[in-house]
Amino acid sequence: MRRTKILATVGPASAAPAVLDRMVALGVDAFRINFSHGTDNEHRATLRSLRAAGERSGREIALVADLQGPKIRMGEMAGGSVTLSEGQRWVLDTSGLPGTTDRASVTVDHLGTSVRIGDRLLLGDGSVELAVRKVGLSQIATVVGSGGTVSSHAGVFLPGARLRAEILGEKDLVDLAIAVDAGVDWVALSFVRAASDVRALRTLLARSGRAQVGIIAKIERAEALARREEIVEAADAIMVARGDLGIEVPLERLALEQKRLVGAANAAQKPAIVATQMLLSMVAAPRPTRTEATDVANAVLDGADTVMLSEESATGRYPLESVAWLDRICRSTEAGVATGEFQIARPSVLPPSSDRSVADAAVRLAIDVHAEAIVTPSSSGRTARLVAASRPSAPILALCAGVETRRRLALTWGVEALPCPANMTLEAMRGFAQNLVAHRPGRRRGGRIVLTAGYPLEGTPTNLVTVLSTSPSRGSARPRATRGAARG
Q1: Which end of the chain is more exposed for a tag (fewer CB within 10 A), N or C?
Q2: Is 276 labeled as catalytic in the residue annotation?
Q3: Are 299 and 437 members of one domain?
Q4: CA 10 to centroid of chain Cα atoms
Q5: Residue 445 and residue 397 share a domain
Q6: Number of C-beta neighbours around residue 41 at 10 A
């Protein structure tokens, strides 16, 4: 069983039902739809198709809606692009007029208050660099530091700038309504700057009656790095979005920032997704480069819960091969960890709590008794996440009555979420766990199970850990749903 999860972006190359089914069979755990591209009707149709693919597979496949967010872009360029030379003076304004070699427009209302003299601006993929020389209310004067070609609608990056744009624009609100109506499991919030951005989205989800939808904070702005702890605390998961982040921060520091972000999420027992250009060469080639294979393996060793495909599965020529290679690299890396050759990075200090102590005890007990599985009945998924944070060698089986919880756990390392009856007594819970493991392929005769949960009421912190035999006791083959609950 592969423990690191795979999140694949869906686009023209992968939208056909037959391709989606094959991607799931190859190991995709969750699908991402990028709302920066496509029409409203296309988004609705894609979300329906993705949910149908999950239902056909019989697995709990999570759906992630990635909102565009307040990305600044260049306006139209006369002729489609403009070539700039080093030392050239260039004015940026908000006029909306087509760009020339003298000036161009940008899509931000508060340009003059977002930058200061001396700030750097990076365009497109970061190869064109401007230095701010003069700031006005509606325009700024720059000097080209590194020249190149600037195309219409190229991205504009302001490392360290204090942008005032709303985290959710008009388009984002429309897209959010479409996503919520389609029943997505996660919403990815782009260009998060502070915990308040996450709280703003959470308020909107609560008002729409979908408070249970998970929020992924995408870390792609330099200003978010100084606030990573508060952002991780406010969000349900984070994404290390290395494309824009790699432009905003010095490239030589990107790997260090990735490790810090993943470590912060691990310490908070929340999923960490590493994204962007993991197998980029596979957009046009059937095999990854050696560098890409190493990058994926290092993300696993950093402690990532999930690795993500972007262009590779959305627009590339080899979406199926990309999934297969990601699966292959993750499995091989995890095998090295299982044999003790390598270790997955873990935070050196974890905030103390009683339920974390119980979850840690369950993991240590599973090692001592050579458990075949750690079973975690849970209504919210918290118990499963606590156990997963210790990266145990035993499989983690999360028993969840709610389908929403099972789908959200599709992004958590090592967790296989399975349905169970609601409101089980402790006796019924024990019997259900025994029967579940007893019928799994490859189980050992006389094996052991570690069961950990919050008991007896829904919402109770994780407070119970026990060892069971894989041989169910008489009368426990059909656990009955009764009053009372085993939750975590």
Answers
A1: N
A2: yes
A3: no
A4: 15
A5: yes
A6: 9
Query: Is 156's pLDDT higher than 60?
Result: yes
For the whole prediction, is pTM greater than 0.70?
A: yes
Place of tokens 């919402």: 459
pLDDT, one tens digit per residue, over 102-141 is 999 998 777 777 788 998 899 987 889 999 999 998 899 9
Give catalytic status of residue 218 as yes or no: yes
Read off the CATH number of the domain in which 327 is found: 3.20.20.60
Q: How many domains does one find in the chain?
A: 3
Q: For residues 350, 351, 357 and 360, what is the CA-based torsion angle, rounded to 10 degrees?
A: -20
CA atoms within 13 A on the CB side of 344: 26
| φ, ψ (nearest 5 deg) of residue 259 | -65, -40
Radius of gyration, CA atoms only, the chain: 24
3-state secondary structure of 408: helix
Q: Catalytic pick from 71, 73, 260, 440?
A: 73
Which DSSP string do the residues of 131-180 spell out, in sequence order? EEEEE-SSEEEEEEEE-EEEETT-BEE-TT----S-SS-HHHHHHHHHHH
Q: Which of 5, 51, 193, 218 is catalytic?
A: 218
Range of the structural domain that residue 411 is part of: 354-469
In angstroms, the CA 387 to CA 269 distance is: 9
- Asked if residues 158 and 108 have their Cβ atoms less than 8 Å apart, the reply is no
